[in-house]
Amino acid sequence: MERPVRVLIIDDDEIFCRLLAEILEGRGIEVVWTTDGMVGYEMSLYQPYNLFILDERMPLVLGTELADDLKKDNPDAKIILTSAFADEALRKRSQGLGVPLLSKPFSAKRLLEVVENTLGDTKPHGN
């Protein structure tokens, strides 16, 4: 039996984390989330995840900094960056990291499209 796709969401907004988790879990994806960027990074070291969804603006650490660190630890890490402040500089930075940028607010449909495109061959069952 295949293992479910595992996603780690790191966003300082707990309500947003819960909303994303509900959308993804509805597709059979296993979701873990934290509102603390540093805790999220530590979690990434001890558990395997197929995808990371990172908020750009958090206390103590930026999503792009986390993405950099995650890519150093695992060059194949699949990451989606989210931001309510998706300006041109951030778009260029996310492109440079090779990660898609989702501008908040976004629809559940858009989230699922980007997740599916980012995961590629690691798609969850039932799709």
Molecular structure report:
With 127 residues, this protein is of the alpha/beta class. It has 5 helices and 5 strands, in the order E-H-E-H-E-H-E-H-E-H. The protein has a 5-stranded parallel beta sheet, sandwiched between helices. Strand 3 (51-55), helix 3 and strand 4 form a beta-alpha-beta unit. Helix 2 runs parallel beside helix 3. The two termini are 16 Å apart. The mean pLDDT is 93.
List keywords for this structure.
5 helices, Rossmann fold, five-stranded parallel β-sheet, alpha/beta, single chain, 5 strands, 127 residues
- CATH topology description: Rossmann fold
Q: How is the main sheet built?
A: 5 strands, parallel
Which strands sit side by side, in order, in the main sheet?
2-1-3-4-5
Count of DSSP helices?
A: 5
The share of residues in helices is: 40-55%
Mind telling me the CATH class? Alpha Beta
Determine the strand fraction and express it as a percent band. 15-25%
Could you tell me how far the N terminus lies from the C terminus, measured between alpha carbons in angstroms? 16 Å
Second-tier CATH architecture: 3-Layer(aba) Sandwich
Order of helices and strands: EHEHEHEHEH
- Secondary-structure content class: alpha/beta
What's the mean pLDDT score? 93
| Total count of domains | 1
- Radius of gyration from CA coordinates: 13 Å
CATH superfamily membership, which one? Answer: Response regulator
The shape is globular
Low-confidence stretches: none
Number of DSSP-assigned strands: 5
